Amino acid sequence: MPKVLVSDKLSPTAVQIFKDNGVEVDYLPDLGKDKDKLLEVIGQYDGLAIRSATKVTEKILSAATNLKVIGRAGIGVDNVDIPAATAKGIIVMNTPFGNSITTAEHAISMMLSLARQIPEADASTRASKWEKNRFMGVEVTNKTLGIVGAGNIGSIVADRAQGLKMKVIAFDPFLSPERALDLGVEKVELEELFARADFITLHTPLTEQTRNIISADAFETMKKGVRIVNCARGGLIDEAALAEALKSGKVAGAALDVFLEEPAVDNPLFGLPNVICTPHLGASTTEAQENVALQVAEQISAYLMTGEITNALNFPSISAEEAPRLTPFVKLAEMLGSFAGQLTETSIKGIRVEYEGAVAALNTRPMTAAALTGVMKPLLADVNMVSAPAIAKERGIQVETVNREQQGAYESYIRLTVITERQERSVAGTIFGNGKPRVIQVKSINMEAELAPNMLYITNEDKPGFIGRLGTLLGQLGINIANFNLGRLDVGSDAIALVTIDGVLDEDQLKQITALEGVKQAKSLRF
Ligand SMILES: NC(=O)C1=CN([C@@H]2O[C@H](COP(=O)(O)OP(=O)(O)OC[C@H]3O[C@@H](n4cnc5c(N)ncnc54)[C@H](O)[C@@H]3O)[C@@H](O)[C@H]2O)C=CC1
Ligand SMILES: O=C(O)C(=O)COP(=O)(O)O
To answer: What keywords are assigned to this protein (predicted)?
Structure first.
């Protein structure tokens, strides 16, 4: 009988469902907070059900010798080392919708509490002070609410805020004009949102792109007296910069459900009067906890008992027979998508995937799903092959696939084109005999490059001396070049360099490379 550990507080419904499905279950809701104890016992379990308090680190995973599945009863999986779990073949699942309404309602509650200083007025009244003149609030009617991240939760917040007669503007690179229209929100760029919003609410996952999305510089560009709500993740706001902005009066108030360090017991923001804090309660309602407990227990049981996979974040849906033939192309498609996604800075209207040659005769759906996953991953940390097509559809991203079985110069190749409002950008690749993916064309420029974990992508003017200058600069920066690939259309037109480097470029190094004479665009790419 498979054995599951529930290491965070979950509704008793979960325990019952495990038992009903023939899964043995240990319900130890405080264990997740005790890293050493978790490390000691994790080896016994086939499944692990968690919320946000259990941190599933690489170290924990290395001791999880029997673990097959981790189920997150909730949305954010930033407490799970997914690459490490994937490397160990452990499925990571979440429950993407179970607590979204509840979290959106918490954000709205926080916004209204902020507008009327409810917590402080409550404390003062109960201290027998009756300070009627001290608590002068603001109305939310006709005020502008800026939503950063218009996904599931952000969209519900938008709907509720319109019920409160607010003007809603939203920034989300994956929000299509059609979807914005549906939601009744005005799609704006982040700078415009900062400049116009009276209230700002955050609803993005925590990723490398969103970390400190509200920084000291961002506060500079906001309206004086703006109020900020964060019910997403602590790392989205630079807490020290927020403390300064509150002290200077630039920010009139902040309502925070999440913190950089959790549990937050000693946070500098606690000392400030115009701050409202809750202990990561966004998902804490009876209804949401019932939803997520039920879903996670069903999903984990189904996987352990029948192999069925739902809401997995790290596993493609491919049948056992197809797997060996599809896997290299799935990998290639995801890498091409990731390549194009990392180069795309504006919102995506469409994606075209062309399969040429022998690959066109295979089941290309998982490949298209992998390509979409790769394109969207820089922005949606939790996207996977199962969810990517649905997300693309919901966001109004047109997906077109073309299968041509006749062979050209290569036995098989895949070309992926990302279509934005401004341009179309294509990347093509193939699989060589060794099963490794190779890029064969970027923006119509032929080249041949193996994709490596750390790469530098450069578009430059094709003029004598450029390669020498670039090599010298990389040397000065202490960056070792492992491989150097070049391509160009015609003499003197744009050229592309794809450089495999040892180690990761930091922002300053990338700035210096961008400033090099002849460079038109420089990007650090990770695969
Ligand atoms: N406080 C709490 O208890 C809870 C917090 N959460 C947090 O809320 C987050 C959002 O949840 P959902 O709405 O369900 O996720 P979602 O995946 O449906 O939406 C996230 C949205 O953020 C957008 N996004 C990504 N990068 C962005 C960027 N750089 N700028 C602007 N938008 C960007 C995405 O395009 C997407 O539309 C979760 O990742 C989780 O961290 C979720 C549930 C409860
Ligand atoms: O679902 C999420 O992303 C949450 O942040 C909810 O966290 P929790 O399950 O309440 O610890």
So the answer is: Amino-acid biosynthesis, NAD, Oxidoreductase, Serine biosynthesis
